[in-house]
Amino acid sequence: MRAAVVMAAMLPGMALAHPGHGADGLVHGLAHPLLGLDHVLAMVLVGVMAAQLSGRALWLVPASFLLVMALGGVMGAAGVALPFVEAGIALSVIVLGAAVAFGLRAPLAVAMGLAGLFALFHGHAHGAEIPENAGGLAYAAGFLAATALLHGLGVLAGRLRPAALRVAGGAAALAGVVLLLG
């Protein structure tokens, strides 16, 4: 009886062990943005910046990031060259951190464009680093979901006191400088 229970419990895992089910891709996609400090900082900062702008920016700035990041992911997965990807990612942390630290109130279109520009680099990195055994759509769904989660955390963090946001934004910008130099 015990053996039958163990076998029944293993069936779902054995089914996912075969390629083509996308579970590996989803897990890898979810993990990729969460395991890199550069990605975490930039994506949370996008949410904080959106919260500082408020109104329609709360969803338009993160949505523009997600849309362009998906495009960058397709480019990276397809092997389309994009120069200075790592520098672009580091600069995203510097610029977004400074924007949060100084509480810049850019026009909505500028904030969306800035988020989109940096999203291209982040998406390209995600797409270029897709594991061979990962399903592409599942992987993309994973990194988009993780990014949306980080944006949401940033929007929530945007409710912190302005002084705390200045310190956090400044610290993030300094981390970006370290990323750029190192």
UniProtKB/TrEMBL annotation:
Task: Specify whether Ligase is a keyword of the entry.
Answer: no
> Which of UniProt's keywords are assigned here?
Membrane, Signal, Transmembrane, Transmembrane helix
Q: Which residues form the signal peptide?
A: 1-17
Q: Name one Pfam family in it.
A: HupE_UreJ
State the source organism's domain of life: Bacteria
> Mind telling me which residue stretches traverse the membrane in this protein?
33-51, 58-78, 84-101, 108-125, 137-156, 163-181
Return the protein name. Answer: HupE/UreJ family protein
